[in-house]
Each structure stands twice: as C-alpha cells, then as structure tokens.
Write a structure and sequence with these properties.
Layout: E1 11-19, E2 25-29, E3 32-36, E4 44-52, E5 57-66, H1 77-82, H2 92-109, E6 133-141, E7 144-150, E8 157-159, H3 168-183, E9 198-205, E10 212-218, H4 227-237, E11 241-248, E12 260-266, E13 269-274, E14 277-282, H5 291-305, E15 312-316, H6 322-327, E16 333-338, H7 341-353, E17 359-363, H8 366-375, E18 382-385, H9 394-402, E19 407-412, H10 415-427, E20 430-438, E21 448-455
Helix pairs in contact: 2-10, 8-9
This protein binds S-adenosylmethionine.
Domain TRAM: 5-63
InterPro entries: MeTrfase_TrmA_AS (IPR030390), MeTrfase_TrmA_CS (IPR030391), NA-bd_OB-fold (IPR012340), SAM-dependent_MTases_sf (IPR029063), TRAM_dom (IPR002792), U5_MeTrfase_fam (IPR010280)
Binding site for S-adenosyl-L-methionine: 288, 317, 338, 386
Length: 459
C-alpha cells in the first residue's frame, strides 16, 4: 500500500483508538500512528498534523466531533503539556483501571505471565494537592524571572502558578520567592549561555508536621544583595519554614541537585512522621512524595512479608530508613543500604529518634553491599527492595536469591523494569505471588506497586 505523504498542518478526521502510557491519544491514519495530547480513546476528532517522523507522528486536536464519557472537562492544558498532570483529563476511576491494565500488559509482554491476577489499584483519598515536594525550574521569559514547568521532552518553560497536584502552601512559597527574587533582580539560569544564578526552587512540606524546607539550586554560593531581607520576609510569612539551603550546581548535566549544600536559615532538614514513626529528612535524601499513599504501600509490604519477631530483614535501597524503621519493632534485626550518604546519616539518626537499637545502615550500592553481607554470614529471612526507576541490578538479584530468604518484597515505581526483574527472580527460584498497585501519583501516568516473591526451590 502506498504510504500517505503527510504534510505539516494537514487536517484529518480520525478516531482515537488508544492511550499511550504517558497519556497521549493514539490515532491511526492509513495504519500510520499519530500521538495526540488531550485526546482520549473513543473520541472522534479533527486532528492537525504537527510533526511527521519515519514511523510515527504528532498531532493536535483541532476540534472534538465526539467526546469520551470519561473525559474531565476544564483541566488546564498546561498540566497535560508539561506532564504535571498528564492524565488530568481522564476520570480518576479510569486512571486507576488504566494503571492496572498497564501492569497486566507488562507482565504478559515482558514476563510472559498471561492473566496474572494483579489486584485493583488502591485509590488515593486525596487526588489533588497531594504532593509534598516540588522541583520547579526558574528561567527568564521576556526578561522576567519566571517559575513554572518544562514542556514535555523539552526545556521550554511554561509559566505555572497553581501546580494542581502539590500542597497549595508549596505553590504559595514558590510564588512568594519568585516575586521577591524579581524585586531584588536576581538573575535566572540560561542553559544556552550557562549564565545566571537561580536554576531551581525545591520545596518540601512535611505532610503531618507541616515543616517546610526550601532548597535554592544556584550556580554559585555568592548571595545576591537583598537576600537577608528576603529570608526575613519569607520566614515571617511562612513561620513553619525550618530550613532554607543553597545547593550549588554549576554543571550542565540533567541532575537538578549538585553535591554541595549550604544552610542559609534554620537547620539542614525537616522532620515528619510516617506510620507513627518520626523521620528526619535531609535535602538530598529521597522521601515518597505522597505520604498518605506511601503509608498504605508500606503497610501492604509488611502484610505481604508476614513479619515474625525472629526475622532478620534486609531493607535494600533504604533511603532515610522509612521502610525498615516502620517495621523494626516487629522483627529481630534490620540491615539497610543506600548510596546517598546524607540519607544513610538520616536513617541512623531516625533509628535513634525512634529508640531502636536493632538497625544497621551502610552507604554503598545494594549490588556491592549485599554480596559482602552474605559473605559475612548475614542470613535474612525477608529481603525488601525499593529501587529507583531503573530497577534492580542483575548482581543484586543473584545475591538476593542466594540469601534463600523466604520472601522478597519488591516495591517498584516502574512496572516495565519490575516486569523485567520478575523474569530474573523466577529464573533464580523465586515465584511471583502477589502484585498490588497503589496510586501514589493521581492525575499522572506514574505507577507504584508492591509485589511479593516466594521461594520455590533451593538455589
Ligand atoms: C525509590 S527510593 C526508596 C527509598 C526508601 N526505601 C523510601 O521508601 O523512602 C530508591 C533509593 O535507592 C537509592 N539508590 C539508587 N541506586 C542505588 C543503588 N545502586 N544501591 C543502593 N541504593 C540506591 C536512591 O538514592 C534512593 O534513596
């Protein structure tokens, strides 16, 4: 069949037949796929061609001829364009079904587990304003320091004042800082020239304690004139601010934070509680952005593990120790490892804060430390893993399987790498038993799940 020679700005009438995992509608014209923002399956649209590649293109909705019954109307399109809320136009019930389907499809496709009984996604009670953390880029637009979010797959700043899914007080702090920085004519970072001072504003607001920590990511630690007055005004307006820090990052890479921090006000951390335990959280350390849902996630992980008072437990990728400390008084001993030194200091401090004497934390990669612990004779009964999006290293999976632990509890924020790791664990004699997604990220495509593997054969 001859392929249509699509031209930019041409308009076609078409059905939206699917949704990508990042929330774009899929339209096929003569078998050629186009990805379209703000288009839902079941809708018929007039689509304008924006860009055509070799095997797919991008389009824009010019007009809706019919709309899906699952559409949420009136959502600011910037939330879709930036990915702040790339599923904001889909009803929450459908978002949950879509996420469950994604997990099933990945288990079928990657792990060849047809019809694995993935449980229904545990919904969030709070589907907006739930995030306890914002990382907002700062750039100039028409000569004016502006805060917002990058358009998806680009570094073009779209101004945003109401971030919709994060705690409103975080938005208020960002706007206050933006306006004050404008007054003292602070320069914002320019990626092309690598000039300018302020790159990002990172704000965390602890969910239960309401303590706020602000990190200003800047290119040099010299403070602009007027910063002292600005800090006084800021902390007077928001008395729950406990920490303001500079983070110096003059690199061109894509990491938001540099290595060096300097405290400008208060202390270098905030404190919050999770499942009744107290946690100190430093600026470079990971902390789940949806506290209420993370508590549900961790509780399910503990239930899957069927903890016993005699259990020796490994908490791999331990961050500030939340998972291990949350169960430490129910088991014999916790061993945790984590690459970020400040997070490990937090974990050690957090164990003391919670009067625990049965935890041990080390700085290093899970794949290097676990084999070392095995050699030293540590024999865990349960291994918890909570890796970043790239999932587990093969060396780690082999070592975790060699432990002969009775179960491995896997918390994943990326079902694609999780499905890959399912295959590896099953090759090593651990059978996937249960998969429970929990919605930590309403209005977005992100999926979190907890799974357990049980030992089936001696390795
Ligand atoms: C998803 S977070 C989980 C943290 C913690 N379990 C929690 O619930 O807050 C993943 C953690 O793994 C750490 N990390 C990344 N790569 C690692 C590695 N190779 N070995 C150990 N920790 C790693 C990150 O710094 C981060 O703290």
């Amino acid at each position: 069949m001859d392929m249509i020679n699509f031209k930019k700005n041409e308009i076609f009438e078409a059905d939206v037949i699917d949704l990508t995992h990042e929330g774009q509608g899929v339209v096929k014209i003569e078998h050629f796929p186009f990805f379209v923002d703000n288009a839902l399956p079941g809708e018929r649209i007039m689509m304008r061609v924006l860009k055509v590649g070799k095997s797919f293109g991008f389009g824009r909705v010019e007009q809706f001829l019919t709309q899906s019954e699952h559409r949420v109307n009136g959502v600011n399109l910037d939330y879709l364009r930036t990915g702040i809320a790339d599923f904001g136009h889909l009803s929450y019930e459908e978002q949950l079904k879509f996420k469950q389907k994604q997990v099933c499809q990945l288990l079928t496709k990657t792990a060849h587990k047809e019809k694995f009984p993935v449980s229904n996604v545990i919904p969030a009670d709070r589907t907006l304003a739930y995030r306890n953390k914002a990382q907002v880029p700062v750039r100039d637009i028409d000569g004016l320091l502006t805060t917002g979010f990058f358009r998806k797959n680009s570094h073009t700043l779209i101004p945003v004042e109401n971030f919709y899914i994060q705690a409103p007080e975080i938005d208020a702090v960002i706007l206050f800082l933006r306006d004050e920085f404008r007054k003292i004519t602070v320069s914002s970072y320019d990626e092309k020239t690598r000039q300018g001072w302020l790159r990002n504003i990172v704000v965390r607001k602890a969910y239960y304690s309401s303590e706020i920590m602000i990190t200003l990511v800047v290119t040099a630690d010299k403070l602009p004139k007027g910063t002292d007055r600005l800090l006084s005004a800021l902390t007077e307006k928001f008395p729950n601010i406990k920490s303001v820090q500079l983070n110096i990052n003059a690199d061109t890479g894509s990491f938001i934070l540099g290595k060096k921090f300097k405290v400008l006000y208060g202390q270098g951390y905030i404190t919050d509680t999770m499942l009744g335990k107290t946690f100190q959280i430093s600026a470079p350390a990971f902390y789940q952005v949806n506290t209420e849902q993370a508590e549900k996630l961790y509780q399910i992980a503990y239930d899957f593990a069927d903890l016993k008072a005699t259990d020796v437990v490994i908490d791999a990728y331990s961050g500030i120790g939340t998972i291990g400390i949350g169960m430490a008084d129910k088991v014999h001993q916790i061993y945790g490892m984590e690459v970020i030194p400040e997070a490990v200091s937090d974990a050690k401090h957090n164990a003391r804060l919670n009067n625990l004497s049965n935890t041990h934390y080390e700085v290093g990669t899970a794949e290097a430390i676990l084999p070392k612990w095995l050699k030293a004779g540590i024999k865990p009964d349960i291994v918890f893993v909570d890796p970043p999006r790239k999932g587990l290293d093969e060396t780690f999976i082999r070592a975790a399987s060699e432990t002969q632990a009775r179960a491995i509890i896997y918390i994943s924020c990326n079902p694609a790498t999780f499905a890959r790791d399912v295959v590896r664990f099953e090759e090593q004699g651990y059978q996937l038993d249960k998969v429970q997604p929990v919605d930590l990220f309403p209005q977005t495509h992100h999926i979190e799940l907890v799974a357990n593997f049980i030992k089936t054969s001696a390795c």
